[in-house]
Amino acid sequence: MKRVFVILSILLVGMVFMSFAQQITLTFMTGGNDQNVPTSVTMKLVQEYEKLNPGIKIDVTPVLYSTFNEKLSTMILSNSFPDIIDFTTAYVTKVDPYLLNLAPYLKEYYNLTPDEFRDQIIPAMASLLGNNPNVINCIPESTTGQAILINKTMWEKAGILPPPLNGQTTPWTWNQWESALETVKKVNKLPYALSFLNSSDRLYGFITMWGVSYLNDNGQFILDKTPHATEAINSFLSLFSNKIIPPAEWLSGENTNMDFFSGITAAWWSGSWQITTVLKQEEATGRDYEFVYTPKIYDWFSVPGGAFIGACKTGNKIKEEAAAKFLMWLSTNKSQAYKEMAIDSGALPVYKGMTLNYNNDQVNKWINDVFAVELRLTPSWAMLSRTSNTYEELYDVNVKAVTSAIANNWDAEKVIRTIEDGYDKIVSGQ
C-alpha cells in the first residue's frame, strides 16, 4: 500500500511539473489613448482567451501613451520586446521591422492570402498592415473617425439640420456649412458657433478635405507644394477672425467640451471617441445631440485614428507561435472576439460591410450611418502620411504655428513657412 502511495505521489508531482512546464506566459504591452482599446476591454479578452487555452498565460502591461515612444525606443535599443504589442498609427513605421509576419498563420488558420486579408478591411486601415505585399505584420485592433457633433435643439431653432439628418444623403459643401454656422449662431445669440480642439490631428482632419497633407508617404514635407494648402489654412484661420471658433480654444487651451456642452457653441468638430461622453451628457441634462457629416470640399471622408496589434520577433519560436495564435483568434471578419472587442470599446468596424450592434439604437445610428459611411471612403494617402515618426514630432510645431497666426494675424503663407522651419529642425536633429 505504501509503495502504491509513493508511486501515486510521484505521478502526481510529475503531472504538476508537466502542467507548469507546458504553460506558456506571454507579455503584452498596450498603450493607452482614445484610439486604443481600453485596458479593461483588453483584460476581458485576455481572460476569455486564457479560459479557452489553459496552457497560455498573458501578462498585460499598460503603458501611458505619453511615455510610449520613449518605452518603444528603449526596447529597440536593447533589442528586448514583449511578445505582443499594440500601437497607434503614429508608430506603424517604427514598430514594423520588429513584428512577426502573420501571413503564414492567416493561410494556416483561415486559408487567406495577404491580399485576401487586406481586401476584408477598409482601405485606410488595410494600407498599414505591412510594407511588403506578401507580408501582414499586424492586424487592426480598433479605429475611430471624425464627425461634427451638434446641439440639435439649437439647430432646430434655426430651422437647419445638417446631413444625414432628415434623410439627406449628400454632404454639405464648406460654403453651406459656414453659412449654416453663422445662422445658428445668430438665431441662438451665441458668441461663437463651432468648437475645435487645438490639435494637430483635428487640424489635419480639416485640411485633408482640401486634399492637403503635412507630409507625403515617406515623411517628407509637402505642405508648401500641395495644391489648395494656402486656401485650406486661410479658411481655417478665418473661422477665428469671423468669430466662428472661440480663439481661446487655441490660444489658451480653453476646454472644447465645456464650451460645447455649456452652450457657448452649437457644434463641435469631434469624433467617435466622444460617444460615451455625449451619452452621459444627454442623460444628465436631457439635451439632444447628434453626430453629423463633415463637409465635402474637394474630398469627403473621415480621417481615422487607429490601433493595431502585432506579435514581436523575439527569437523564441514557441512564444512567437503562441502570440500569433492569439492574434488569429482576434483577426478576420469572422472573429467573434474582434466583434466583442469593438462593441465593448465603442470602436468603429474595420472590416468592410460589417454592421455591429452596440446595444444602443442611438450609438448604432451614429456609428453605422455617419462614421462608417465616411470611414469607408478614406483614401490610403490620408493614413500613410500619418505613419511617419516625423508626423508625431510635428504635433507641437503645427499647433504653435496656428496659435501664433491667430494671435498675430498671420496669413497661411507664414504658417506654412513656420511649420516648414520646424520640420527642418526636426529632421536635422536640432
Task: Please tell me about this protein's structure.
The chain is α/β, with parallel strands linked by helices. Helix content is 49%, strand content 13%. It contains 21 helices and 9 strands. Helix 2 (39-52) links the parallel strand 1 (24-32) and strand 2. The chain is globular, with a radius of gyration of 24 Å.
Given helix and strand content, the structural type is: alpha/beta
Shape by Cα distribution: globular
Rounded to the nearest angstrom, the radius of gyration is 24 Å
Helical segment count:
21
Sheet bearing the most strands, described?
5 strands, mixed
User: Which series of helices and strands comes N to C?
Assistant: HEHEHEHHHHEEHHEHHHHEHEEHHHHHHH
Strand content range: 5-15%
Mean pLDDT over all positions: 91
Distance between the termini: 80 Å
Helix share of residues? Answer: 40-55%
Strand order of the largest sheet: 2-1-3-9-4
Task: Offer a few descriptive terms.
alpha/beta, five-stranded mixed β-sheet, four-stranded mixed β-sheet, 430 residues
Describe the secondary-structure layout:
Layout: H1 2-22, E1 24-32, H2 39-52, E2 56-64, H3 65-78, E3 84-88, H4 92-95, H5 103-110, H6 114-119, H7 123-126, E4 139-144, E5 146-151, H8 152-157, H9 174-187, E6 194-196, H10 200-207, H11 229-241, H12 248-251, H13 256-261, E7 267-271, H14 275-285, E8 289-292, E9 305-311, H15 317-330, H16 336-345, H17 361-375, H18 380-384, H19 389-393, H20 395-408, H21 412-427
Parallel strand pairs: 1-2, 1-3, 6-7
Antiparallel strand pairs: 3-9, 4-9, 5-7, 5-8
Helix pairs in contact: 11-21, 20-21
